[in-house]
Amino acid sequence: MEKLVVLGLGLIGGSLALDLKKRGQFKVFGFDKNPEHIKKSLELGVIDEEISFSEIADADVIIVSVPVNVVGKLVSKVLDIVSATTLVFDVGSVKNEICKEIANHPNRKNFVAAHPLAGTEFSGPEAAILNLFDEKVNIICEADKADWRILDRAISLFKMLNMHIKMMNPVEHDRHIAYVSHLSHVSSFMLGKTVLEIEKNEQAIFDMASTGFASTVRLAKSSANTWTPIFLENKENVIKSLDEYIKNLNEFKELIENNDAEALNESMNSTNYIKSILNGIKESN
Amino acid sequence: MEKLVVLGLGLIGGSLALDLKKRGQFKVFGFDKNPEHIKKSLELGVIDEEISFSEIADADVIIVSVPVNVVGKLVSKVLDIVSATTLVFDVGSVKNEICKEIANHPNRKNFVAAHPLAGTEFSGPEAAILNLFDEKVNIICEADKADWRILDRAISLFKMLNMHIKMMNPVEHDRHIAYVSHLSHVSSFMLGKTVLEIEKNEQAIFDMASTGFASTVRLAKSSANTWTPIFLENKENVIKSLDEYIKNLNEFKELIENNDAEALNESMNSTNYIKSILNGIKESN
Predict the structure, then answer these.
(1) Binary contact (B224, A272; C-beta < 8 A)
(2) Do residues B177 and B94 lie in contact, with contact meaning Cβ atoms separated by under 8 Å?
């Protein structure tokens, strides 16, 4: 059995642990500064055993799945002690900062910067689910900075989970992901906030939450502890995407104010084009 | 068999036709100014027969399911000719305008102003599906303005579809629905527009459209012909909700600019409260 360590037993780390444990090839150890997460993970069979940080050096695989503002520091500490053959990878939603942080580490070659595009709006080890990564895309940044055997091991593991692999440079990654993931989260959080502020009468929300609200506001259930550092770490791109979004909202509002039915129709019609692009994408995550 | 007429064979009209036809109690006639809709509806078994407007007067039930900017005029024309016992109801997403428009019609008592809170992002008779209304809320406005037997007939029909019924005054309805439905649609359309504008590289959208984008942008696939008149007819409320939404987005952006992790966390944490309110709501519609 290979020794696999998961540092951070949240939704992503927990789901990786659960899924890889099932394969039978790994003994899965968990580390989390929150003792409740360890307890829950053991109870739910997400991990086989708890592990202390000093015991991880000889692991075959170490997964770093902690909030993006601490991932750089933790990966460095891990690289300080790991064996020459240990694969270390992270799963963070922002990639440029982490790549810069560990760029000059003597064991940089043991590290693969990864971002599995998968998740739900839930958090903690109790949110861990099987098959979360099935058929999802995993973005690998700066693949050429990893030792080829380390990278190959990472790819094998991702393929074991039936993921698609896409190589990307971290600057490009952060710019794209701001639009297609981070902006979605802000828009959803602020939609939830706006409706909560106005609709003091909660029963009305419950009654009227069909026709779209529930799905559009779904991401507003996401963990603030996960998303605060993501927005700050990808600050420049998130702000740029927000500026564009707010500009479009203001323009749309003006069209309504001016009763410009034709332009409203045209704006929505051309956006319908998103349909053909998203066609075939599973909406489950 | 009772004679049921559906004027306007789109997603809602078509789904009502399909579902009520299945019950065996109605012969379902369809009317639509688009001959393609009639053809498709007959092909798909959404209606039993086409009908001309001059033949509808003796119907037992007439459903008016056309865009909200024409519903008032059409309901008036229908009320001009219907028999004393005919139930006429609409399904529009804005209610105050229609209620005002037909307020003084001599046959006002034949009309029930309804808004079934159900739908998908698809449109036209080919989008018609069975069980769309199952367990959904149907809002009835100005129920007291309808003859009690007419209203009772409407309620029987809605209960046959397993809908919950909520009475509401039309001004309240339009104010609430702006926040929980119309705003969701604007936010989703503008999210789609923003991402389309920036991500010229469509392959990138496809690859990166997990973790939330697909569900948050789902409503941007909705029909521009349906939604343009809704936004214009509920103009005042939609603009107010948009102002609040844009204000919240700007405030959130400022928190990111100021690296105010604590306030960002607090904002998202308190919005997480939406979870407990939406708890138990099906996300399918």
Answers:
(1) yes
(2) yes
Chain segment A145-180, per-residue pLDDT in tens: 999 999 999 999 999 999 999 999 999 999 999 998
For residue B284, what pLDDT is reported?
36
Distance (Å, whole) CA A123 – CA A221? 9
**Which of B166, B197, B274 faces A217 most closely, judged by CB atoms?**
B274
- Average pLDDT taken over every residue of chain A: 93
**How far does B163 lie from chain A, in Å, by closest CA?**
12
Containing H/E element for B5? strand B2-7
Percent pLDDT > 90 in chain A is 85
Mutation for B interface: A70, A172, A179, A238, most B CBs within 10 A: A179
CA A108: distance to chain centroid? 22
**DSSP string of A46-87?**
S-SEE--GGG-TT-SEEEE-S-HHHHHHHHHHHHHH--TT-E
pTM here is 0.91
Mean pLDDT of B229-245: 97
Cβ neighbours of residue B113 closer than 8 Å, sequence gap 6 or more: B89, B90, B95, B98, B99, B140, B141, B142, B170
Nearest to A194 among B166, B248, B269 (CB): B248
Mutate to test the interface with B, among A12, A122, A161, A180 (most CBs of B within 10 A): A180
Please write the tens of the pLDDT for every residue from A207-218: 666 658 888 999
Hey, what domains does chain A have and what are their CATH numbers? Answer: 2-168 (3.40.50.720), 173-278 (1.10.3660.10)
